[in-house]
Design brief:
CATH architecture of the domain at 28-216: 3-Layer(aba) Sandwich
Strand content: 5-15%
Largest sheet: 5 strands, parallel
CATH class of the domain at 28-216: Alpha Beta
InterPro entries: NB-ARC (IPR002182), NLR-like (IPR053137), P-loop_NTPase (IPR027417), TPR-like_helical_dom_sf (IPR011990)
Distance between the termini: 45 Å
Number of strands: 10
Pfam families: NB-ARC (PF00931), TPR_10 (PF13374), TPR_12 (PF13424)
Domain NB-ARC: 94-236
Radius of gyration: 37 Å
CATH topology of the domain at 28-216: Rossmann fold
Structural class: mainly alpha
Helix content: 55-70%
Protein name: FxSxx-COOH system tetratricopeptide repeat protein
Number of helices: 33
Shape: elongated
Region (Disordered): 1-27, 42-62
CATH superfamily of the domain at 28-216: P-loop containing nucleotide triphosphate hydrolases
Length: 792
């Protein structure tokens, strides 16, 4: 039932230890055995290696910390955390820093290692993405400790000697960077108890086995992210244009690697952050995978995350799941939404794998994904096996179905379903924002249409328009202009325009909908009856009572004949006819219809249904208009109390009931209560609905009217001027509410003794009202009487 506006006036482990060989002959010896020749390679250590490793000392300043320690911003708290873990009163041997690829783990570790040169020796960095890489890094450490061994001893023996050295010395720091499997690092972690080991890894699980202190690294705060972008983009270029820096780091989710990548690109190409944003929007696949000259080509965000997903290739569901999650908002996603994707054990395994590598964040009930991970995962790239176009499209359609299924048991009108709507609204909005309109299906249109209805019901018609408009386009493109689903979405779009006060767009859409429904469905189809009711209601809102009243009478008669007297469409038609009679000044016809509508709604829908609450509010308002305050005030109080209890204090129906109770107090002469309630209603509507919502304009008008009635022209006149200016801007100069606001301002001028301004404004308003509404419209008659009273 539509709500009329209020009265505008109112791994393996190798053995450890050093290698001992007898007979220090260097090279190969050939051993002959019966039956065949066999060559046995024996690598023998030179004489210097016969020293026990505990007698080998590290040269002062032995370190190999990599170059990226030079680009560093913030992270004071994280550095302090590493200091407490590795150097504090109760230090641990192992600290593990984990987080999403590109989050800055290696940079943090490098900064810590670089600043600890005087505390630890050696400070040794090992690329640890595989067991062979760790072995090579250990061999390099042995060569650093004893350079003469570098060309003489096989790599594996060197690695074993380094492990032996680490096991019997203290005061060293070993960094194992980018460990992909804790088992690869086990030979080191199991043997090194005297020094300190700092591990970085995308993997967040398994480090407890080493007794590690674990630190999860998060993205940079926005201010530090901007500082990092600035440092890279303006290097030797202090004049660089940084317009759009905050927007760019926000789009990149404050992820350090992405910011460095963008900053280097800006520096190389002499671009501003805003220009980079345009490139990112137009060519995302290229930009996510492109590095500036001089940067490591393999260290782009797309390639780093591709390697992570390669580790999960044994579970194809993990990649698909990430592509589905990519279409949602970068905030908490209910895990229950994902239940239809797979059986619980498979789903949990996939989620756990993604979480272990920090591609997602899990808690007991929700999943969260970094916005840039999402952006890359939903961007097709034929060069990436995890982002094929067909796979991305399949994930989009499943993401849409999951949202639709998650809302299947809810009604946008039922307060019990509102928490679900509010939880999923951000994800529906994100999907609509990121999915190309060309990919929309009827299922997409259905989801968008339902979302628009929820937003309309919550008092956000401007947002609803966007959803309904896209749903209408999708249905028209995929199903045709006369399909019932297209007609429904066209009707809903018209309703959103009407609620926003844009009757110039609403009425033609309603007229098209009705014509299409009559042609395709027939004159007696419920959708046709609803379309006729809605068009008539729009005529009434535009002040065209000459068309509204006859059409509403016909619609009510047809609805009673076809659907029966208690059908919701019939109740809505009766309510709207009653309101049209009231707008025409026929309260004797309006009030019985309102009374019957309320009684039927209470019996059929229940006393707490939103349509019943609306009917109760409308009847109370009609009683007030008739001067029957003995019934108007108590019923208005009940309508407000019921709305607050059922819908909450901020629902548009509640706000309308509060406005109308204030109007009842004003009519009763209780201006103290009226003004207090009007002021509260205006403040709430500005907060909930926004300053330009038609209901907010009504509240502003009503408060000004009450100020004038109280003789407070100092507040009334400025508020009426603002109301008129806002109404002309938002609703247009010919809208009935704008004409009313202009009349009320003229009345205030008259009360203030400014008769010249009052007469001039009233003459213009009367001429416009006669042109738009007609000479016999009640609003026109009021304006004519006001003008005559001044010029007599």
């Amino acid at each position: 039932m539509s709500t009329p506006p209020e009265d505008p006036g109112a791994g393996d482990r190798r053995p450890g230890g050093s290698v001992h060989m007898d007979g220090a002959a260097f090279g190969q010896s050939r051993v002959y055995q019966a039956g065949r020749d066999q060559i046995v390679n024996q690598s023998v250590l030179p004489d210097q290696a016969s020293r026990p490793v505990d007698q080998v000392t590290a040269r002062p300043g032995s370190r190999n910390v990599p170059w990226h320690s030079q680009v560093f911003v913030g992270r004071d708290g994280e550095l302090a955390g590493l200091e407490r873990a590795l150097e504090g009163p109760r230090p641990v041997v192992v600290a593990a820093v984990h987080g999403l690829g590109g989050i800055g783990k290696s940079t943090l570790a490098a900064r810590y290692a670089a600043t600890r040169a005087r505390m630890f020796n050696p400070v040794w960095w090992i690329a640890a993405d595989s067991a062979s890489s760790i072995e090579a890094g250990l061999a390099a450490l042995a060569a650093e400790l004893q350079p003469e061994l570098a060309a003489a001893v096989p790599l594996e023996a060197l690695a074993q000697r380094a492990l032996a050295w680490l096991g019997c010395h203290e005061g060293w720091l070993l960094v194992l960077d980018n460990v992909t499997d804790p088992a690869d690092a086990a030979p080191v972690l199991d043997r090194t108890l005297a020094g300190r080991v700092l591990v970085t890894s995308r993997l967040g699980e398994g480090w407890h086995r080493a007794g590690a202190s674990v630190l999860r690294l998060e993205v940079l705060p926005e201010g530090q992210a901007i500082d990092l972008l600035t440092a890279v983009a303006t290097h030797h270029r202090p004049e660089a244009d940084l317009d759009g820096a905050a927007e760019l780091v926000g789009e990149l989710g404050c992820l350090p690697l992405a910011i460095e990548q963008a900053g280097a690109y800006l520096h190389q190409n002499r671009l501003s952050p805003r220009a980079y944003l345009r490139l990112l929007a137009e060519h995302p696949a290229v930009m996510y995978d492109q590095a500036a000259r001089g940067s490591a080509a393999e260290r782009t965000i797309a390639r780093i995350w591709r390697l992570t997903l390669d580790r999960l290739a044994g579970d194809p569901l993990a990649g698909h799941l990430l592509r589905v999650l990519a279409w949602y908002a970068p905030e908490k996603i209910p895990r229950s939404l994902l239940d239809p994707i797979a059986e619980p054990p498979r789903l949990l395994q996939a989620l756990g794998g993604l979480a272990a590598y920090n591609m997602i964040t899990l808690d007991g009930r929700t999943v969260t994904v970094h916005r840039l991970v999402q952006a890359v995962a939903r961007t097709p790239d034929p060069g990436d096996p995890h982002r094929g176009e067909a796979d991305v499209r399949t994930a989009l359609h499943q993401a849409t179905r999951l949202l639709s299924d998650g809302l299947a048991a809810t009604s946008f009108e039922d307060p019990a379903g509102w928490p679900t709507w509010r939880t999923l609204l951000a994800h529906i909005t994100a999907l609509a924002d990121h999915a190309p309109a060309a990919t929309d299906t009827p299922a997409t249109a259905g989801l968008l249409d339902r979302t628009g209805l929820f937003l309309y019901d919550q008092g956000a018609p401007a947002r609803a328009i966007g959803f309904h408009d896209r749903a209408h386009d999708a249905n028209r493109q995929t199903l045709g202009g006369d399909h019932p689903a297209t007609l429904t979405s066209r009707n809903n779009l018209a309703g959103a325009y009407q609620a926003a006060g844009d009757l110039g767009r609403a009425i033609p859409l309603y007229e098209r909908t009705l014509t299409g429904s009559e042609r395709v469905l027939g004159g007696d189809h419920p959708s046709t009856l609803a379309a006729r009711n809605n068009l008539a209601s729009a005529y009434r809102a535009a002040g065209d009572l000459g068309r509204a009243v006859p059409l509403l009478k016909r619609t009510l008669a047809d609805s009673e004949r076809v659907l029966g007297g208690e059908h919701p469409i019939t109740l809505s038609s009766r309510n709207n006819l009653a309101y049209a009679h009231r707008a025409a000044g026929n309260l004797a016809l309006a009030i019985p219809l309102h009374e019957r509508t309320l009684a039927d709604s209470e019996r059929v829908l229940g006393g707490d249904h939103p349509s019943t609450l609306t009917a109760r509010n409308n009847l109370a308002s009609a009683y007030r208009a008739a001067g029957d305050l003995g019934r108007a005030v108590p019923l208005s109080k009940r309508a407000l109390a019921d709305s607050e209890r059922v819908l909450g204090g901020d629902h548009p129906i509640t706000l309308g009931s509060r406005n109308n109770l204030a109007g009842a107090y004003e009519t009763a002469g209780d201006l103290g209560r009226a003004i207090t309630l009007y002021e509260r209603t205006l403040a709430d509507r500005e907060r909930v609905l926004g300053g330009d919502h038609p209901d907010t304009l009504t509240s502003r008008n009503n408060l000004a009217h009450a100020y004038q009635a109280a003789g407070d022209l100092g507040r009334a006149v400025p508020l009426l001027r603002r109301t008129l200016a806002d109404s002309e801007r938002v609703l247009g100069g010919d809208h009935p509410d704008t004409l009313t606001a202009r009349n009320n301002l003229a009345s205030a001028y008259q009360a203030a003794g400014e008769l010249g301004r009052a007469v001039s404004l009233l003459r213009r308003t009367l001429a416009d009202s006669e042109r738009v509404l007609g000479g016999d419209h009640p609003i026109t008659k009021v304006m004519r009487a006001n003008l005559e009273a001044i010029i007599r």
